[in-house]
Each structure stands twice: as structure tokens, then as C-alpha cells.
Amino acid sequence: MSVTSLRKLPAILVVDDEVRSQEALRRTLEEDFDVLCASDADEGMEILEREQSVTGIRIVLCDQRMPGTTGVQFLREVRNRWPDIVRIILSGYTDAEDIITGVNEAGIWQYLLKPWQPEQLLLTLQRAAEVWRLQQENQRLSLDLRTAEPVLKRHVDTKQEKVKSSFGLGSFIRAAGSPINAVCDLVHRVAPFDLSVMVTGESGSGKEMIAKAIHYESRRASKAFITENCGALPDTLLESELFGYKRGAFTGAVEDRVGLFQQADGGTLFLDEIGETSPAFQVKLLRVLQEGEFRPLGSNRAVHVDVRVIAATNRDLEEDVRTGRFREDLYYRLATISLHVPPLRERTMDLPLLANRLLESSCQALGKPVEGFTKEAMACIAAYRWPGNVRELQNEILRMVALSTTPLLGADLLSPRVLRTPVGDFDDNRPADELAWASGLNGGLKERMDQLEMHVLKEAMIRLRWNKSRAARELGLSRVGLRAKLVRYGLEQAE
């Protein structure tokens, strides 16, 4: 083995019947290549058969005119047996027919003319070595991809299943008999079909979760789910966000912007608070829904998209249609299917399950482990009407976890508005506010005042963690007087 081969230089086979030409090529190339030489095609073939598995010859540089055979004929055989080798012809003639034959039949990578220049020859062969390296890398990558394809497919399928479980119907926490069950059943039935859906419900009730469930239960699940709050932007900004614009369309448009409709192509676009849009914008939105195309601001060309639109609102759009505030044709275009999400106060049976699930996510978000709720805290949570729905419940539990100093979250950590709610059983359907509750008390004035006093006492004791001294000071009572009232109302044992 030559000294150069110990340096692991790329190997090149030079086939030339002229000895002086061989030596000149060797001297030029030996600093950058492990050079092997052959005087004719037969010797070149013997070297290839002997050395290819050991040395790994990357390039064959062959003279075109040799006794017995031509360079193209020899390199055609090389191509058939070792297709990865980069093949180069060295010729003193510029015969067009030879060049065409060499490219088509022997896969010649390059033709070099005699007399050759050392710098040009060396640069060409260095590029040839890089071509060989890139070919090998491409083959390895192709093999890796073929090998990994089943694994990647399983990984993608698994990821899609995880996404579906996180955002699909499996993400809904609900008890048996919950009103949300009927909504989930309807989602399951309509999700596979490309129909526009209108989701109605109070703020924070989970309208976006319903929209995500529809998307991830549909055939569009692998595509984008894009959200836009229509009530947060004026018409001009909303139009540029949804439809995009071209550079120079208006002052400040320094580059093209792809709109959300185009970003959601093949997927789903969720338009929240659709009832807050103006009639002028509703006309533009209606055209997109009818024609499936739009023009970015400043463009003369229409863009075609395939987007499923899901809209949501907390308004009574049917009333808005009657008063002319919302276009009737747009309403019926959006509300092919209508879904109403019940408020949390109508899902009291879901509250314990939902509260515990939100507690888990809150502990993860804050990095603070908590074991659960006290019975008293859960009773207060179940009694409150949650006008802000799930969003309010989530914020309340986050607050409790942040303030907690014990493994269990006590009722004293609740916000005053939650704590002051009259506490009953989990299935107790309380009126909408405390004044209505007070007006619904039974008995004469004294009995009603006693019930109200008991409620005030219990709220204060829970909030102050049953500290009688602090409660007595706050309520303007002596400690003895407070204790007497607690005994009278049967609250002393609650401590």
C-alpha cells in the first residue's frame, strides 16, 4: 500500500497506455489522491476487481484512445459493475459523437481535453470526489428514510392520536348525565363532514374547545387549525389578518403577508366572536365562503383556498339578524350546523371532575404539587354559579394553588365572591345572585335573619380559617358572643 493511502485520501484509478502520461498524472494528483495506474482496460479491470472492496476507488480517469478498446467502452463496463464510481474521459479529440455516446452509454461525468493544465485537472478531480461523497450521502439518507419510514409513520400516527386525545372529544371532562354529552355526540356526528358550524355559548364556556374537537375529529386533523378573535380588531386590521396583503398595499406594508385563510388552506379557520363584525366586513366574508376565493389587499389576483370555517359567538345572532345588525345570508352560510355549549352552572355534576383536572394542570403550570381540595372547598366550588364558566374556574384554581401552603386546598383560599356563595349540596340549583337567594328564604323575618346571620358567620369562619379572635374582631363581637352564636347555629363542630 502506498504512503498516500495511509492518509486515507480518496482513491483514483488512472488508465492510460502512455507511461509518461501516467507519471505526469501521478505527480500532479498524489498530494490529494491515492493514485493507482493501469496501462490498458484489462489491467484497469483487474485493479478494480482487486482494490474496489479494499481501497474504495471513487474516480476513474481514462484515456479515450487506447489499443484494443476505447475509454467509453471501458467506462461503460465500469458503470455496469460499479455505478457509484465517477467516470472521466481524457481525450485529445473533440468528437461530438464520442461525447454524446459517452454521456448516454457510459454516464461520463466530465470530458477533459489534452493537453491538460495541472490546476484545472486537480480542481476537476476534487469536484469529482465531492460528487462521489454526495452520492454516497444521498444513498445513506435514502436507505435511512426507507428504514425509518414505518417508524416515522407510527410516530406520526401516535402523535396524531395524542393530539386527538388532547383536543378531540377525549379532552372533555364530563360526568354521566352531563348536558355536554349531547353536544359531544353532535360533534362526533358532524365532524367528518365539511360543513360550516356555528358554536354559541357564554364567554369561557368552551366554544374554542368545541371547535378544536370538530377539527381534530375530522379528516382535516393533520392540517392547520387557525384561530382569530374577530372582536379584538377593527375591520381594516381584521381584513388584512384574514386575507393578507401585498407589499405597498398601504402605508407600512413593507412586505407581502399571507393571510389566515391561506395559512389554514386544507384545515380549519375558527372565527371567534363573529357577532362583533360590522355589516361591511360581513359582505367580504360572505364572498369567501360562497366562492372559496379572495384577493389579498393590493392584489389583482384571486387566491383559491379549501378551508372549513367554524364561527363562535356569545351573542343572540338570530335576534341580530332580525334587527339587521347581522346579515341573514351570512348567518345561514355559517350556521349550517348550530351547537350550543351549556354554561358551567348547568353542569354542576361535572364540577368535581373538572376542578380536579384543572388542579392537575395548574400544579404542572406552577411547578407546585398539591394533593386536592378539602370537602369544604369543594362544596363552595360546587355552590358558586361561575358566570365566567370554565375560564373563571381555571383562574380561581390557579390562584388557590399559588397561595396554598398545605397539601390540601382549603376554602379560605377561595376568592370572596366564591366563598360568600350560600353553600348547599353539589346538586343544589341556587338562584343567580345572593339577593335572590335571600328573598327566597322561608319563614318570618326572624327566621330569615337567622339564616342570613348563619351564612355570614360561616363565610367569615371559613375565610379566616376558624380563627375565633380574628372573626370576632371583624364581625364586631366578643369572643364569647361569637362562640355562643356558633353553638346556636351548629357551626362549632365544623371546626
From TrEMBL:
Domain Sigma-54 factor interaction: residue ranges: 173-402
SMART domains xref list: AAA, REC
InterPro entries per UniProt: AAA+_ATPase (IPR003593), AAA_lid_NorR (IPR058031), CheY-like_superfamily (IPR011006), Homeodomain-like_sf (IPR009057), HTH_Fis (IPR002197), P-loop_NTPase (IPR027417), Sig_transdc_resp-reg_receiver (IPR001789), Sigma_54_int (IPR002078)
Modified sites of kind 4-aspartylphosphate: 63
Keyword Transmembrane annotated: no
UniProt entry keywords in alphabetical sequence: ATP-binding, DNA-binding, Nucleotide-binding, Phosphoprotein, Transcription, Transcription regulation
Signal peptide residues on this chain, from the entry's feature table: none
Domain Response regulatory: 11-129
Protein's name in the database: Sigma-54 dependent transcriptional regulator
Organism: Dechloromonas hankyongensis
